[in-house]
Every structure is written in structure tokens, then in C-alpha cells.
Specification:
4 helices
């Protein structure tokens, strides 16, 4: 398969969901969102990145915080300690690879009114750490605080793995790989506009609400993803002869990708 700068996917590229690719892509995606927004909203508003660091276990995407309660240190060379010879170590029940936590940066984009520094809109770009375990709980608490405030919420979930944090997505019959939500603060009942996106569809152009007296600005998510793909030359490192990263595709999308990949291989 020849390397082409053109992504074979019309929207989100699932090969970027690989754990070795996601962090870099996620950072670039957030930065490009800021660039696109600031081109439209300054000087009245300003968009910037907010970075929050958690500890993430990559293999399970579980977050963990804290420090060890007990430390074991090397004894001084003159120590009188003598290892007991009579103790018999109990055989282990099981042996597994230890999963060490690594620092993970969670990114969101803040849109503020420049004159007052008032937070107007927050754009959450979800990561694996937002979608499982303690990280999911923490994010849902943050989301609840936003929904009880006068801040607009835009939620961009371009990850197939993990649990969808938004409770309004529960019990939906929609079959899609990705989802975008826009929730406006001005209504008495917070209602989310939802875009479900299948793997074989382009990403949508969505509104980003500002203060009531100002019109929405638009965010072309498809252009943003394609710009990041091109600018960072992902076509050099993405290998489409390999399987798509987990989780497994829905049968309909698996069939679509096999057909699409066959076309690429024949070129």
C-alpha cells in the first residue's frame, strides 16, 4: 500500500486511537481547535488550552492518584541486620505484569470574555482517562458542575473505547463510533444537541455558543482533523495493513473498511 497524505477515512481516523498515537494527536487536535476559534472570536473573546494532569494506567486506562505509604530502602553497609533463615515464603497465588501509572495530560479549551475574563464556553476533548474508572467519575462530577453553571459545554468524543460520560446518551439506539454534544447554558432546561458519527462519515461542522448577544461561531471538526493529519505527517507512520486498534468494529463498519482497504491495496 503506497503512502498517501490523504486519509482513507472521510472523518476521524481510528488508527490515531492507538495508545502510541493518541497523546500526540490529542495535543495537536486541541491546539488546532484553539487556532480555529481565535481566528473567529478575537478580540472580544479568547480561546486557550487548559491542562490537567492525572496518573493513567495505559493498558486499562484507569486513573490513580497518591503516593506509597511504605518505602523500602537499602540498608547501611554497617547494619547489624541478619536475614532470618527459618522463614518459609508462601507460594504466590498468581503472577502478573505490574502496570505503572504515567502522567497523562487532560486537555480542554476555555473560551473567555476578554474584558472580564469570564468563562463562557468549555470544550472538552475526551481522553481514555475520562472514560473509565476513577477518571470517568471525576469527569462526570466536573460535567455536572458545568451543567449547573452558566457556562456552555461542547463535548468532543473521538474515541471508540471506554464509556460515554454523558448520561443523556444512555439507552440510545444510535449506532456510531463517535459523538459530539453541544449544550447551551441560556435555557432553563439544559438540552444537548447531539451528533452521532459513523466511521465512514465525515465529522460535522458544529456551533460554538458565546454570550447571548453574540452569534455562534463554527468549528469545522473535519477540517481540524485533516489539518492535523497533514501538518504532523501522520501518513508517514500509520500502517493501514495492520488491524484497526481495539475495540473491534461493528460488523457493518468492518465490512466497509475491508472494502475500502482492498481498494487502497489495489492502487
Amino acid at each position: 500500500m503506497s503512502k498517501s497524505s490523504q486519509s482513507p477515512f472521510p472523518g476521524m481516523n481510528p488508527y490515531l486511537e492507538d495508545v502510541n498515537r493518541w497523546r500526540g494527536f490529542h495535543n495537536a487536535l486541541a491546539s488546532e481547535v484553539v487556532v480555529q476559534l481565535n481566528a473567529q472570536i478575537t478580540p472580544a473573546y479568547y480561546a486557550e488550552l487548559e491542562v490537567h494532569t492525572v496518573m493513567e494506567v495505559l493498558m486499562t486506562s484507569q486513573t490513580a492518584r497518591g503516593f506509597p505509604d511504605v518505602g523500602v530502602y537499602e540498608a547501611d553497609i554497617d547494619s547489624d541486620f541478619v536475614r532470618p533463615e527459618t522463614a518459609v515464603i508462601t507460594p504466590v497465588s498468581e503472577r502478573r505484569v505490574a502496570l505503572a501509572g504515567v502522567p497523562t495530560k487532560l486537555l480542554n479549551v476555555r473560551v473567555t470574555l476578554l474584558e472580564t475574563q469570564e468563562l463562557v464556553t468549555t470544550i472538552e476533548l475526551l481522553s481514555p482517562a475520562n472514560k473509565q474508572g476513577k477518571g470517568l467519575e471525576d469527569y462526570r462530577e466536573k460535567r455536572e458542575r458545568i451543567l449547573r453553571s452558566d457556562v456552555h459545554l461542547v463535548e468532543i468524543d473521538l474515541l471508540r473505547r471506554g464509556q460515554r460520560p454523558a448520561l443523556e446518551l444512555a439507552n440510545s439506539d444510535a449506532e456510531a463510533e463517535y459523538v459530539i454534544l453541544v449544550n447551551r447554558a441560556e435555557s432553563t432546561e439544559r438540552v444537548s444537541d447531539i451528533w452521532w458519527i459513523a466511521l465512514n462519515q465525515p465529522l460535522p461542522t458544529i456551533p460554538v455558543p458565546l454570550r447571548n448577544f453574540d452569534p455562534d461561531v463554527v468549528l469545522d471538526l473535519n477540517q481540524i482533523v485533516q489539518t492535523v493529519m497533514e501538518r504532523f505527517r501522520y501518513y508517514v507512520i500509520l500502517d493501514y495493513t495492520r488491524p484497526i486498534p481495539s475495540p473491534k468494529l461493528r460488523p457493518e463498519m468492518a465490512a466497509w473498511w475491508e472494502q475500502r482497504r482492498s481498494e487502497l491495496l489495489s492502487q
